[in-house]
Amino acid sequence: MKKILCIVQARMGSTRLPGKVLKEINGHPMIYYTLTSLKKSRYIDEVVLATSNKKIDTPLAEYVKTLGFEVFRGSEANVLERYKLAADKYGGDVIVRVTGDCPLINPIITDNVITKYLMYEDEYDYVRLDVPNTFTRGFDTEVFSKEALDKVYEIACSNKNINKKEFEPFREHVTYYIYNHQNEFKVGVVEGESKYCKDKEINMSVDTIEDFILAESKLK
């Protein structure tokens, strides 16, 4: 049996809304809702938080540990490396990527993406939710093989490319290389119905205080 590992990336140093993942909604930090929702998935074997090794992220790491989740700490800037090393440590064969600023993440929708990947594993290296076209932002889920993650890491973090500025976006955004080099990977998409995306401008992930207020209203 292959292990399905969900790695949730989060940090305290958000530029637009600093400390947002520990900002409380109904008595719980926002990251609580993301992690506990993903815990309800029928297919995810383990949920791990991946944050930076900077001092500012220590309160986040310590809080998440009190919830019973494992925490991996690595490079702040090289998020790709953080994912690669977390996947190595926790033995993920199939990686689910979610960001910590999605307190309204829906485990049923997440499982739908995992299901498509598992059903057609020989056909896909990577499957994503169709955000924002047919799903509202905030339900964002990506599923990919450990082999695909390793391949991107070996390219973007190789001795040849590690100091090249044009490869920085691929290290900062874990799946950006796959998305921009679809000729090198087998890519799938899970599309939703209109009810899941009535307005493309609505953002259920939290980047600003306005987003936070919206998420807060939905969680009451």
Automatic annotation (TrEMBL):
One of its GO terms (cellular component) is cytosol. Gene3D superfamilies: Spore Coat Polysaccharide Biosynthesis Protein SpsA, Chain A (3.90.550.10). Pfam families: CTP_transf_3. InterPro entries: Cytidylyl_trans (IPR003329), Nucleotide-diphossugar_trans (IPR029044). SUPFAM superfamilies: Nucleotide-diphospho-sugar transferases. CDD domains: GT2_SpsF. This is Spore coat polysaccharide biosynthesis protein SpsF. It comes from Clostridium cavendishii DSM 21758.
